[in-house]
Task: inverse folding
């Protein structure tokens, strides 16, 4: 399990593979972002985007799914406070395959002694290597629980 | 039609509200954010949250839904968003919560190259206890009033 103490600034990880389908773009948009260029191929073709594109918030949801599948199982995290500096850089279209590259930017000691905040910059790219979205997440990492008294030094914390 | 020129700094608007159900929380989380405190009521009870809470990305999605509906009501000439300065999930969102959304204009400026303008706004959702659960500061682009862009062209 990876705790706050184990996270190193500068550390980079590549993970995830999310195949974007037309059905899912439309389904998300119907529920949360019902604008014509997310819902209707015909209307989208006539728009400035020239075709159906995913809601930017949908790209965010696909990002967190990749994080859940790849990063969270081994990390002692307890959710996130939010994020900074989110950029929607390029449209996400049906048939795109997304991946993530994350880099630890900063560790911040919290007010609470049992956890800290890790600022992680993530870039989500498509199959052509174009970055479609980037953001800096403020992830809550738990600290390594104290070893029961007189624990051997080899348990290291 | 509401164009870029019609947004005034300090102006605030109610965007409507949404009551969130446990079924909605589970459906979103199982698809996009399968962490136990979002997908498993029993595991959530034992977590630091003391019960099931919505994914922060779900809360943002609901805020987007209310924003899109409000923009449609006022016929805003919105052309999308290049990004957000910040988003903070300040309080947990739980089944049965009623979330009211509102927005305030912080800053406006015209594009130097295109017939659009930018609006920096704060958007937030408040629960039935008056607590802000999510606060976002971000940019939205709007088309300029046709006469105005013609006059300055």
Result:
């Amino acid at each position: 399990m990876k705790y706050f103490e184990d996270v190193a600034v500068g550390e980079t990880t590549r993970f995830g593979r999310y195949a974007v389908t037309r059905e899912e773009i439309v389904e998300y948009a119907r529920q949360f972002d019902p604008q014509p260029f997310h819902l209707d191929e015909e209307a989208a073709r006539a728009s400035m985007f020239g075709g159906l594109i995913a809601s930017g918030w949908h790209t965010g949801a696909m990002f967190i799914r990749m994080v859940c599948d790849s990063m969270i199982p081994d990390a002692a995290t307890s959710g996130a406070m939010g994020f900074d500096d989110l950029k929607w850089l390029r449209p996400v279209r049906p048939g795109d395959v997304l991946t993530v590259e994350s880099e630890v930017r900063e560790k911040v000691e919290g007010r609470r002694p049992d956890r800290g905040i890790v600022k992680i910059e993530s870039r989500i790219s498509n199959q052509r290597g174009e970055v479609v979205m980037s953001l800096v997440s403020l992830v809550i990492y738990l600290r390594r629980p104290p070893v029961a008294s007189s624990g051997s030094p080899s348990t290291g914390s | 039609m509401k164009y870029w020129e019609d947004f005034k700094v300090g102006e605030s608007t109610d965007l409507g509200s949404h009551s969130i159900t446990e079924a909605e929380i589970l459906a979103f989380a199982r698809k996009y954010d399968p962490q136990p405190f979002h997908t498993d009521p029993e595991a959530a009870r034992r977590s630091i949250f003391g019960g099931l809470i919505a994914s922060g990305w779900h809360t943002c999605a609901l805020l987007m839904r209310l924003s899109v509906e409000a923009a449609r009501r006022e016929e805003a000439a919105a052309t999308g968003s290049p990004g957000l300065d910040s988003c903070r999930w300040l309080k947990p969102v739980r089944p049965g919560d009623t979330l009211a959304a509102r927005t305030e204009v912080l800053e406006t400026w015209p594009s130097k190259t295109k017939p659009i303008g930018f609006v920096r706004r704060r958007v937030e959702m408040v629960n039935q206890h008056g607590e802000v659960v999510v606060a976002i500061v971000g940019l939205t682009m709007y088309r300029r009033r046709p006469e105005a862009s013609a006059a300055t062209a």
Residues 4-20+56-144 of chain A form a domain with the Thiol Ester Dehydrase; Chain A fold (CATH 3.10.129.10). Chain A has a mean pLDDT of 92. The interface with chain B takes residues 28, 31-35, 48, 55-57, 60-62, 64-65, 68, 72, 78-88 of chain A (CB under 8 Å).
